[in-house]
Amino acid sequence: MESEEVSEIKSKTLIVIVGPTAIGKTELAIKLAKYFNTEIVSADSRQFFKEMEIGTAKPSLNELALAKHHFINSHSIEKLFSTGDFEVEALKIIDHIFETHKIAIMVGGSGLYINAVINGLDKLPDIDLSIRAELNRKFEEEGIIPIQKQLKEIDPEYFEKVDQNNPQRMIRGIEVFLSTGKKLSSMLSASKKERSFNIIKIGLNTDRAVLYSRINERVDRMMEIGLLDEVKSLSNFKHLNALNTVGYSELFDYLADKITLPEAVNSIKQNTRRFAKRQLTWFRRDEETTWFEPEELTEIVTLIERKI
Fold first, then answer.
1. CATH number at residue 160
2. What is the number of structural domains in the chain?
3. Are residues 103 and 246 in the same domain?
4. Which domain holds residue 66?
5. Where is the binding site for substrate, in residues?
6. Quick check: 128 pLDDT over 90?
């Protein structure tokens, strides 16, 4: 009886699609969702926010109409939405999808959020709130570079994994070390929480020159369709963590007369390419991921059907 229950529980499968920005994850997710007649859970830490549209490369209205998406425009930049919050909410939605479907799809480039759903989060220690306040003050007064340098010195392993344009996550690494004397990277264990579903991990990648060209073209397209106006409309919120990110912080610098517009656009391209490189470094560590070129739909479907 017990083995039958386990078999029933594990009869559901979560397909996870990962890879660098601009590689074509959304397009593949929609094709698979249509093929398997299911729904998509977005694991992109910026597409949650309804105020950030162009700079986050959200699926278009046409794409959203092709398959049901979750966690697109689901939250406001004015409310903190943590990795832990995502783990809890995403698992609820995945369970809901499994009530009527045998397969669900999760797609995104935010490694921490995907890891939270797949493996679960470690319980981290309480920290000294005065340390957090001091680090936040340091960031407000001195900017992100001193925060980056401090984290790299005290916890280089976590520094390599984290989004280095996200001050909140870098401050988390510093405050844990200053509060406990232990590196945050040493607390992120390899132990996994048992999930009630199977997981198939699909990675997308291509030649680096091709990827970088796609990134540059995407940034140019964002500028053409109004990214600068979007950033202007969010100027009153530029202090929020959600907006301290690629595509927004560079244009805030332009609006503050710190750099020219061409310099800002070039910085967006450069920082996005760097981010893509870090994403690949993160995802390649997982030996359970099978890698494909973005166009290899038939091969991907064949792998999934063989594993289900």
1. 1.10.20.140
2. 2
3. yes
4. 2-122+190-307
5. 21-26
6. no
- Which residues define the annotated binding site? 19-26
For residue 25, pLDDT over 70 is answered with yes
Do 134 and 214 fall within a single domain? Answer: no
Q: Binding site membership for ATP: which residues?
A: 19-26
Share of the chain above pLDDT 90, in %: 69
Q: Is residue 160 domain-shared with residue 299, that is, in the same domain?
A: no
pLDDT digits (tens, 9 = 90+) for 143-187: 889 999 999 999 998 888 787 777 878 888 899 889 888 888 777
The strand pairing partners of 69, in sequence order, are 40
